[in-house]
Automatic annotation (TrEMBL):
GO terms for biological process: memory; neuron projection morphogenesis; proteolysis. It holds the Pfam family Trypsin. Belongs to the peptidase S1 family. Snake venom subfamily. Keywords: Disulfide bond, Hydrolase, Protease, Serine protease. One of its GO terms (cellular component) is secretory granule. This is Peptidase S1 domain-containing protein. One of its GO terms (molecular function) is serine-type endopeptidase activity. SMART domains: Tryp_SPc (SM00020). The keyword Lipoprotein does not apply.
Length: 139
């Protein structure tokens, strides 16, 4: 689903457009996640400030092994050996690699922040043609 705004967004220092990925992220690539989700899983404690963390792109097979039958090729597997992770309330947030939107926070383990259970992100490059077609058809 894409959301169409009624008018243009007010751009400024804290609101800027980002380029969509035209290629898929590489295993081992470092990326940044950000969001307003809880910072104390499993207890929910939502922050007053935007949080971000660095994660690494893992082979998709790692997440397919951890979450059998739940992970598809349209997803990205990313995490951190220290447990950096997206959490409840972060869904819909960005996964940014080298200044490009590569993914959208989707789901992960509960509780979150478990190094052996990476986060799952929608893989933008797998849906880029659909995104462009949908934007183009809506004028």
């Amino acid at each position: 689903m894409l959301i169409r705004l009624r008018g243009q967004a007010s751009l400024g220092p804290q609101v800027k457009p980002i380029n969509l990925a035209d290629h898929c992220p590489q295993v081992g690539q470092k990326c940044t996640i950000s969001g307003w989700g809880t910072v104390t899983s499993p207890r929910e404690n939502f922050p007053d400030t935007l949080n971000c963390a660095e994660v690494e792109i893992f082979p998709l097979k790692k997440c397919k092994d951890v979450y059998p039958g739940e992970v598809t090729d349209g997803m990205i597997c990313a995490g951190d050996s220290n447990g950096a992770d997206s959490c409840q309330g972060d869904s819909g947030g960005p996964l940014v690699c080298d200044g490009v939107l590569q993914g959208i926070t989707s789901w992960g383990s509960d509780p979150c922040g478990r190094p052996e259970r990476p986060g799952i992100y929608t893989n933008i490059c797998r849906y880029l043609d659909w995104i462009k077609k949908t934007i183009g058809s809506r004028g």
